[in-house]
Amino acid sequence: MGAVVLLLGLLAMGFFAGGFDYDTVRSHAGQIPAKWMTVIIFALVIGLGVKLAAFILHIWLPYAHAEAPTPISALLSPAMIGIGAYGLLRLWLELLVGDYSQYSIYIYFWGLATMIYGGAMAMMQDDIKKVLAYSSVSQMGYILFGLGSESVLGISGGAFMYVSHGLGKAILFMMAGAIILQTGTRSMSQLGGLAGKMPYTAVIAMIGALTIMGIPPTSGFMSEWILFTGILQTAVDHGDSLRAAAFGFGILATVLSSAYILWMYKRIFFWKNTRTIRQCNGPK
After folding, report:
1. Which of 82, 158, 260, 275 could lock onto 143 through a cystine, CB 3.0 to 4.6 A?
2. Can you say whether residue 165 is alpha, beta or left, with left for phi > 0 and alpha for psi between -120 and 50 degrees?
3. How many CA atoms lie less than 13 Å away from 199 in the CB half-sphere?
4. Closest to 66 (Cα-Cα) out of 82, 77, 53, 57
5. Which residues contact 57 (CB under 8 A, 6 or more apart)?
6. Per-residue pLDDT of the chain (284 residues; tens, 9 = 90+)
7. DSSP symbol at 29
8. CA–CA separation, 184 vs 112, rounded Å?
9. DSSP state of 187
């Protein structure tokens, strides 16, 4: 459904611009009627928002991650969903930039809502893969937050966030796969104390966790630093108290991200549990 909406928007854009080549669309974007421009932007945002798993359009993602094999999850979260944000950057901000500032504030607050909702839902999960799925929803909110900042730094930070999230989340999904393979479960309430049984997995998973939390010297820190610098810069330059307040809530969302990641890590690797770990005969 998201792809169909996106396709219709692209067809309308190409029809009014006289072609689908980037140079053609960019040079003739002014010829698109205003009422159709609104419809096209709406179609692009909704279609790519489904791919992005942004708030309200995210419903499919936790179920897809929960049922998909681990290698698919390790590609789905890092690579596929972030393409939605990259599509917005290339198709809207680059080609239809004249209408970007008119709608950017909505993308800004949509990103903030996605950040907070995804983090809050991740805190409530017992399934490792669902924690990571809702974490991906939250991380996509960071990218939307940056894209809506009207700042070169904010948009650049959002693009960098796509890369850093992909690296960290791929590690964490492979960690989940290793744990499911060795223990036969993905319920954190049935796990615990795996740091001694699977020390290599624990160390590598911590690297992924630090990247998602944005702790230096990982790439997650640099992407969040650039993103939030751009967001604050826009709020200060425009004297916009609403954007400044949203910036504060965005910083609080990073605390929420750290909370669910550390809570998951503790329950898996350091929680005291008498459950016998199957097939765990050596360091893994």
Report:
1. 158
2. alpha
3. 4
4. 77
5. 2, 46, 49, 50
6. 889 999 999 999 888 888 888 888 888 888 888 888 888 888 999 999 998 888 988 888 888 887 888 888 888 877 888 888 888 888 888 887 666 777 888 889 999 999 999 999 999 998 898 999 999 999 999 999 998 888 889 999 999 999 999 899 999 999 999 998 888 888 888 888 888 888 999 999 999 999 999 899 899 999 999 999 999 988 888 788 888 899 999 999 999 999 999 999 999 998 876 554 444 544 55
7. G
8. 36
9. B
Q: Which two tokens stand for residue 188?
A: 């954190």
- The angle at the Cα of 121, spanning 117 to 125, to the nearest 5 degrees, equals 170
Listed by start position, the domains of the chain span 2-269
The residue type of 164 is: S
How is residue 71 written in tokens?
């290698």
Tell me the DSSP string of 204-239. HHHHHHHHHHT-TTSHHHHHHHHHHHHHHHHHHHHT
* Tokens encoding 220: 């997650």
